[in-house]
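Trying the structure run again after the queue cleared.
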Amino acid sequence: MTAIDSPDALLREAATLRRAGRVPEAISAYERLLQRWPDLPDSWYNLARLQRQAGRFDAALASYQEALDRGVAKPEEVHLNRGVIYANHLRQDDAAERELAAALRLNPNYVPALLNRGNLHEDRGEREAALVLYERILVLDPGYHEALARYANLKTITSPNDPLVARLRQAIALPSAMAADKASLSFALGKVLDGCGAYDQAFEAYVAANRHSRESAGPRALYDRKAQERFIDQVIQVFSANSVVAPARPNPPIFICGMFRSGSTLVEQVLASHPRVTAGGELDLLPTFVRSDLAPFPASIANVAPKKLEQLAALYRETLAKMFPHADLVTDKRPDNFLYIGLIKRLFPNAKIVHTTRDALDNCLSVFFLHLDQGMPYALDLMDTGHYYRQYRRLMTHWKSLFGDDIFDFDYDAFVREPKPAVEKLLTFCGLDWNENCLSFHRTPATVKTASVWQVREPLYRRSSGRWRNYEPRLAALQAYLADL
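Done. Tokens:
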């Protein structure tokens, strides 16, 4: 057999490009390979993974299906990957459920599928169903730390002497536990101890959790305060005036942004209780534009062509239409879109922006207590969180000077004290008629994919407002640093 009649050379080329992280070139190589030799299930699988990495989700689903049709080994893994695409990227939870069920029919003890199915139950607010699956995983694999952490996060514990607290501590102390495992377990331990009022122990658990999280991530988990200040300076300089010149576009998304843990999920759930509004969740569209089409941001904005912005706005709307084909108004609730309000107004000049706010100490403490991705390294240190918070406030002051009429401050603390007036103002700002369902947001069946999944499924409560007082002895430095805010 000659080289031209063998796939070996193209296989090596595609694999080399994939290992080097050269995603577009690797995709092209696999496509050329499979066009000529289509009966290579492992190559279809590798192509699908690359297409998913590139954000080509429909193509990835099709390639995964080719892998299944051609007899790929471990088909349960392929069904799992298809399920993740449906759940996380296309927001088609029923399709995700079918894929996970297919994986478990093939292998009833396939732990990754059980874990993802449990997570899907959590997103839907189905606590007991999720607990059953996590318990099953822990029977199959008692040392599966992520399942134990998720199980603990769903349990209500009333005493620090509960056996679950001891079980978490024992798991953290195991020599076999990796730093990432210890981080998940320690965040869960902090939540459990906070829930039963053992605040000193809870704070120590959260300090350890953030330390383990930093260790698991390595150098990328270092927050550079000076670099953040320079970035905010740049954004303010580039967007120094309200230079919106594009025409208004019909029914732009409702953007909800602010600090993480400032009430954005709650606001989205309130709006999603209105018959005209569909919850879009934390969409990655704007950050993707910034990373790829508009890099380096914000410097690129100075020379970006109006045609380019028009194309990005059209792509944004097409993506939403595909994800939510029957929606009237869609929310984009990615909190850190506050960084891109100037860009939002270039893409959608008539966009309304709901800015969620909360007591500064409560907000920073809640961020520190949350297991955020280490790509947000400011969350790993309480004073770094305070610094990031000050820079966020500085930028929001600038945006309000430019677009004040189109930015609505939604005060979480005022809302929990007196809900109806806050909701009335919110709906009026968004151009929506009053609807009584918006006061019963906890009954809305929308899927929620954030850390606030359980809070927004309860009737309104005040225990998170003023929560910092439980930890006041630990917050003297942060309190002094944020005193003027």
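Residues 143-221 form one domain. Worth checking whether this holds up in the mutant runs.
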